[in-house]
Write a structure and sequence with these properties.
The chain is an alpha+beta fold. 19% of the residues lie in helices and 32% in strands. It has 6 domains: 4-217, Phosphatidylinositol 3-kinase Catalytic Subunit, Chain A, domain 1 (Ubiquitin-like (UB roll)); 231-340, Ubiquitin-like (UB roll); 361-461, Ubiquitin-like (UB roll), CATH 3.10.20; 471-564, Roll (Ubiquitin-like (UB roll)), CATH 3.10.20.90; 572-649, Ubiquitin-like (UB roll) (Roll); 664-750, Ubiquitin-like (UB roll) (Roll). The chain contains 18 helices and 35 strands. It has a 5-stranded mixed sheet with strand order 2-1-5-3-4. Strands 7-6-9-35-8 form a 5-stranded mixed sheet. The protein is globular and about 110 Å long.
Length: 769
């Protein structure tokens, strides 16, 4: 897997049907194919090769395609940053990924397609000081849907202002005045009358864009049937793909995106005729059209996908949309096997007559299992007589694998994932089109000692065993939980124990299995869930709940490489505390492993050891932070088991002088709205009879800001009391200690988040990343 990178592509068509934030949903790990196209490519593949392959897949000329890089902005949105320049045409995709500082062996791209040329250029030059690319969405209250309309190049001009992250735009503003940049999204809707608004309210519907986004935030599903169904997707399997495939069927369509380096996917107009489609595909493979025959693959009742019927030459003038509808259950998708003939039959035709005119010939596929290499490989397809005996074809089977003529073989039919049946040599085939036959060398009496060696080594020696292992195997993606380590994929057996899994991962990472810890992931968000205990007696399937693993799909697991032994660690609890130094800017993470029966005072003792206080009489306070505000200060006697996993904990030193004052306020940061919080909160002591001018000097020192930075801050007293507005402090002569402040009052610092990590507000129609 280290030789590949994953490329996720968003097209204009995918944007048009996306219901949600951004241009597409990159977070839905297990259902991405409905929103994006996923490709696995070699790292050393050049940009030119990649661009040519994708252009061919979508049946578009390469010069009409431009790819933009997505980046994650500070507010966690994914937006376009810059197009990949044509000067990179001979640059490897891995080099482009590294230069763009993209992590995790993954690239996210938007495919811009130009429909007509402008002079000598297909695309506007970017970067350009005068134009930007924006995306439009239209909200239709009647449909309760948000439709992507496409992208647009607009002129930007004027003086900048600073709008909220999601806000209603002033129609008189220029794009530059609204702080719009490349990749931003503009939403609009028609203005509703009061009567129309009331009608939607009564029906419990959204009537404007802000409420629609609010529902999306709450994960309420919106029913929307896209009208953009002019295209159908055609997936083509070739003989070469079948030969490389190592599992059930001809190819694994459930994990199709992982096979795209070997397989072919085309998006074509439904109105395109079969003749045009066949001509185009034949030309791409440099094969005369008369030597190509396409078979329609269908879903059988047992869950397998096999070729069923060849598309007749009588359909050359039939649209692909009609073929989709007539020959397949999915009207927008067609799966085909491309059969290629290398010589004519009887000098006048390329393919055997099959179907109603010849019910005796059937098309089968051969696979060979080699216990020595532990692989099952596709060999070829073959026409056989339906009522011919299996033994009559044994020599042909041997020839296809280049086995000696006298080699004894065992033959099996791959009926389904859980049904592998040995075939009797004296019986007739009785198969149907698309059936798969697997065979292997039958071990002689002298060779039976090999079976014992295979068993001792934990290896597979027979075809039924191999198919059983496929059923119990699954792809697992391992991501680092805390540190910036590599992610990787492994195929593991779902029936393995914790120790077997740890051994396999340790071998991959070249580390001690007892210094690994695994954490399960939430199926929807892909975030860490519960730590998996080393002492568990469950199988891997039971640890992760079998629902994840059936049907097989890639499962996410987080891993940590520990300094201490996992057996010792499981008797302890991991605590991470952020230590505030002399200034709030000096934040340092402290990682602790404490016995599970420890109390909060034990945390403080450990911090005392790691961070020597300025005075032996100083005190360290510990508090938890939620949404950038202190929610709870610990007394010290609480059990550490009361601290929730992933809780943000902060600690700071309180000097002896501050202890004597015994009058403090919580200080927190916000931008404009007290609810729009950001930054690190802290405790600040109020001195008796101190004028506000002197208080500000102390505050500036605590923040670690220079005069210019501090001058941008507006200081206010903010109350937790509902609807009470902030009281901004503009008089340097006031004395804070004389104000009647309660534990519901805070000292609020109103300023822009220079780190770019502020949270979005709740108002929309312009979504700014």
């Amino acid at each position: 897997m280290e030789d590949y990178i994953t490329v996720k592509i968003v097209t204009a068509e995918k944007f048009k049907i996306h219901q949600g934030f951004d241009l597409a949903n990159f977070y839905d790990r297990f259902h991405t194919l409905s929103e994006i196209y996923v490709y696995k490519i070699l790292k050393n593949e050049t940009f030119k090769t990649f661009k040519d392959n994708i252009s061919r897949t979508f049946n578009i000329s390469p010069e009409q395609v431009r790819f933009w890089l997505f980046v994650m902005r500070a507010n966690k949105t994914f937006r376009l940053e810059s197009p990949i320049p044509e000067s990179y045409i001979n640059t490897s995709m891995e080099t482009i990924r590294c230069r763009a500082a993209l992590g995790c062996n993954e690239m996210r791209l938007y495919m811009e397609v130009a429909k007509k040329i402008n002079g000598k250029k297909w695309f506007p030059a970017v970067p350009n000081a005068n134009i930007i690319i924006v995306f439009l969405k239209y909200f239709d209250p009647d449909k309760q849907a948000l439709e992507g309309l496409g992208h647009l190049y607009v002129q930007k001009f004027g003086q900048e202002i600073s709008p909220n992250m999601i806000e209603e735009m002033n129609p008189e503003s220029t794009f530059q005045q609204s702080e719009i940049q490349d990749g931003d999204i503009i939403c609009f809707q028609k203005t509703l009358t009061e009567r129309e608004i009331q009608k939607h309210k009564t029906a419990g519907h959204c009537w404007d864009i802000p409420h629609f986004y609010e529902l999306l935030t709450l994960r309420i599903v919106v029913s929307f049937k896209p009208k953009f169904d002019y295209f159908c997707t055609v997936k083509v399997v070739t003989a070469e793909i079948f030969k490389k495939h190592k599992g059930f069927d001809l190819v694994d369509f459930k994990n199709w995106h992982d096979l795209l380096p070997e397989a072919y996917l085309y998006k074509i107009l439904k109105s395109e005729t079969y003749g045009v489609f066949k001509e185009n595909i034949s030309r791409r493979f440099n094969i005369p059209p008369e030597q190509v025959q396409f078979w329609v693959l269908i879903n059988r009742q047992n869950g397998t996908i096999r070729p069923n019927t060849p598309i007749s030459e009588l359909f050359l003038k039939t649209s692909m949309g009609e073929i989709c509808a007539d020959m397949n259950s999915k009207q927008n998708e067609l799966k085909l096997y491309m059969e290629i003939a290398d010589k004519q039959i009887n000098g006048n035709m390329w393919f055997p007559i099959i179907g109603e005119r010849n019910t005796n010939s059937i098309l089968i596929f051969l696979k060979y299992f080699d216990p020595g290499s532990q692989t099952l490989k596709g060999l070829c397809h073959l026409y056989v007589q339906k009522f011919g005996k299996v033994k009559d074809y044994i020599n042909i089977f041997r020839e296809k694998e280049k086995l000696p003529p006298d080699t004894p073989i065992k033959i099996y039919e791959e009926i389904g994932p859980n049904e592998i049946k040995e075939m009797k040599l004296g019986s007739t085939f009785q198969q149907r089109n698309g059936d798969i036959i697997s065979f292997q060398k039958d071990l002689t009496d002298k060779e039976h000692v090999l079976i014992q060696e295979y068993v001792k080594a934990g290896l597979i020696y027979s075809i039924p065993q191999f198919y059983e292992s496929l059923t119990s195997s699954n792809d697992f993606l391992f991501q680092p939980k805390l540190k910036n380590l590599d992610e990787f994929e492994l195929v593991l057996n779902k029936n393995w124990t914790y120790d077997q899994v740890a051994e396999e991962v340790a071998t991959h990472l070249n580390t001690d299995p007892l210094k690994l810890q695994f954490t399960a992931a939430h199926s929807t968000s892909g975030t860490p869930k519960n730590v998996i205990k080393q002492t568990t007696n469950q199988t891997l399937s039971e640890m992760l709940q079998t629902a994840y693993l059936s049907p097989p799909t890639r499962v996410l697991l987080f891993y940590e490489m520990l300094k201490s032994n996992i057996v010792e660690l499981e008797t302890k609890k991991f605590i991470q505390v952020y230590w505030l130094g002399k200034t709030v800017k000096d934040v340092e993470a402290i990682n602790l492993h404490l016995p599970k029966d420890a109390i909060v005072n034990d945390i403080i003792k450990e911090i005392f050891i790691k961070k020597a206080p300025s005075s032996p009489n100083a005190k360290i306070i510990l508090y938890e932070v939620i949404n950038n505000k202190i929610q709870k200060e610990y007394k010290g006697i609480e059990s550490i088991n009361e601290i929730q996993e992933f809780m943000m904990l902060y600690a700071e030193e309180i000097s002896q002088d501050e202890l004597l004052i015994n009058n403090n306020l919580q200080v927190y940061h916000f931008t404009k709205d007290p609810l729009n919080t950001h930054g690190t909160p802290f405790k600040f002591f109020i001195k008796n009879d101190e004028v506000f001018a002197d208080t500000k000097i102390r505050l500036q020192l605590r923040l670690g800001m220079n005069k210019e930075e501090f001058a941008k801050i507006r200081i206010a007293i903010v109350s937790d009391v509902m609807y009470k507005k902030p009281e901004y402090l503009n008089d340097d002569d006031i004395i804070l200690s004389e104000k009647e402040l309660t534990n519901m009052d805070y000292l609020g610092l109103d300023h822009i988040d220079e780190t770019g990590q502020a949270k979005s507000a709740d108002r929309t129609i312009y979504i700014r990343g």
